[in-house]
Design goal:
The structure is a single chain. This protein is an all-alpha fold. It has one domain: Cytochrome C Oxidase, Chain A (Up-down Bundle). The protein is built from 17 helices and two strands. The chain has a two-stranded antiparallel sheet with strand order 1-2. Strand 1 and strand 2 form a beta hairpin. It binds protoporphyrin IX containing FE. The site of protoporphyrin IX containing FE has 19 residues, from helix 1, helix 2, helix 13 and helix 16. Protoporphyrin IX containing FE binds next to helix 1, helix 2, helix 13 and helix 16.
Length: 493
Amino acid sequence: MTGAAEPSKVGHEEEPRLSFAAGGRVATVEVDLMRAHAFAALVALLVSALFGTIVAIKLVQPDFLAGAAWSTWGSLRASHTQGILFGWLGNAFLAFLYFAIPRLAGRPVMSRRLGWWLFALWNLAMLLPGWALLAANLPQPWLAIKPLEWTEFPLAVNAVTELCLLLMGVQFIAALARKPNDDGFYVSSWYVIGGLVFTLLAFPMGSVVPQIVPGAIGAAFSGLWIHDAVGLYITPMALAIAYYVLPVRTGRPIYSHFLSMIGFWLLFFAYPLNGTHHYVYTSIPMDTQRAAIAASMVMGFDVVLVVLNLLMSLRGHAALVWRDVPLRFVWTGVVLYLVVSLQGSLQASMALQRHVHFTDWVIGHSHLAMLGFASFMALGAIAHIWDRTAQCQSHTGLMNLAYWLILGGLLVMVVDLTAAGLVQGELWNSSATWMDSVKASQAYWWVRTACAVPLLLGFASFLAGMLTQGKSQPSASRDHPHSSGPLPQPGNG
Ligand code: HEM
């Protein structure tokens, strides 16, 4: 297939443009929408991380901000995770889609007006009211915080989310559905379509069904959504970024189209069953738990294939990964995808669950996934589109600084929480009291709190890098003699 190629810089958003590539057409890009979502993403990331910081402080200083409903630990924790999911990653993926879909499809997205409606609904009718309602802690069933992971926002807010997911399908899938040429879709498009369609269907299952189906059955549905949110919304979007950015920045095709397709179908077949591994050793039927464990092992195999394919596509470009900041962000996301997925497959086994279930090991794993894998992909995507859009200023030095600050903060946090989890597991399996384990966790919780400093500075530095002009990126596709060749394109491996 011939993927739409990417020009080095996009001109004014009103002009329909042809790319420099042989036949690759880049349709109108809604630059204003792309920028709006990217800035909203970074602001939401900073706010959500601040919520996370307060939550972390409260674990070591329980009296901190005590006394008000808005500042209870549970409410702020939900604001942290929902803000990360919808505010940060949701907006970042939308920014990427506004940049990539016109290139992948060779035609613009459905409608600019629809785009602004979607932006307003996502941020002003979903994210901000969601945070406000979590703080208000109201008793009405439609407006109350839900005790369901990854969908704590109240039901009224969930209705807006579902509407937005539907509108996203109209906005982006409609452009892709009329495929660019007879050879079919580029793999990024597969992931975008799969992620959007699956999430539209899975979100009500996680948000509404556990509210009406009681007990263990409801928990099983909730467990499915916990992992569908990560595996079939976040992961496909992050992989769409990786399959897009790596070939464009190196000027080389993806190593194997065959492996790309195997990776895609295995993800969508195996991942939906994964979620119940959150409830190993519970009253959910044992066969359901075993199926989830088996699916988790299959996922580990799938990730090895996907990561192998992506890393093989980079062979010969080690030096470029070092020099090119957007590429380095995405490459790091790919490596962390492998690490966190293999950890997850092992973690799903009953042998390891016995030691780490409900401990901080799991929180370390979550940060490795969402802050490591997903956020490095999303930051890489924004750095890439900023670098390639004429109307955007981009400062390589500040983004490079952001990379090291975020990577440093992440690694210390994950090692710290992993160690804390092992200590907690040991104590819980011994005759020690619960309070012994709380006391033993204190030092680790202080370190986790301290990690907020480099992380927040890193996010702020990245945002500053989006607002100032600096040296441009040394990407292969710009400097490479074949930069005008068709990109991104799968190889024949
Ligand atoms: C400023 C840095 C951050 C700090 C101090 C922080 C702290 C925390 C704390 C204290 C929790 C609750 C842990 C518990 O339930 O015991 C948490 C949960 C979580 N955070 Fe963060 N966080 C930070 C940034 C982030 C970022 C940037 C992301 C993702 C991009 C993220 C993703 C998550 C997730 C997914 C959970 C839920 C974990 C689970 O339930 O397994 N955090 N965070």
